[in-house]
Amino acid sequence: MRAPLGDFDVVRPAPEALDLLVAPVADAVRGWNGPVPADELIHVDTDPAWADTATFVEHYGPELLAQSANCVVVAGRRAGETTLAACVVLSATRVDVNGVVRRQLGARKASFAPMDTAVGETDMEYGGITPIGLPGGWPILVDAAVADLPYVLIGSGSRRGKLIVPGKVFAGLPTAVVIEGLGV
């Protein structure tokens, strides 16, 4: 099998790579009922040493940058309450935390969640967090540019491996909100 983008040695439909996925992502793939069949979620095996975006595109090809997205965990605070959310933006952009995210969450203050919170709450590895398999009630804010791509390369829940999925998958996640200008 060939990946729909990039040149990877080991490519499998995610349902055939459950052993390589962290528990919440594997559970999400097992119970998948998204806008495309689960077999269209593709797992590519990659070296965890190259998981971060800059080293990943340096090793696997700079053309992947335009088709890669990052999923970051943010915390919005208002009146002593904290709301965790995920933001999915193109890798070449950054999340507008203090503008778009803060307003969308109705928060007085918003910031990136601390690493231990992001990892502990998602049961995923830092640098590999993906919106597929996040806790059920979390808002998932998706930049419209990500949802518009035919295919998107994103973390798989661990630093080893990536998922390649149609962009429309992110818009179809149960708690997803597609937002213009989330990534700046």
From TrEMBL:
Protein name, as recorded: YbaK/aminoacyl-tRNA synthetase-associated domain-containing protein
Residues making up the signal peptide according to the UniProt record: none
Origin: domain of life: Bacteria
UniProt xrefs under InterPro entries: YbaK/aa-tRNA-synt-asso_dom_sf (IPR036754), YbaK/aa-tRNA-synth-assoc-dom (IPR007214)
Domain YbaK/aminoacyl-tRNA synthetase-associated: 64-166
Single GO MF descriptor: aminoacyl-tRNA deacylase activity
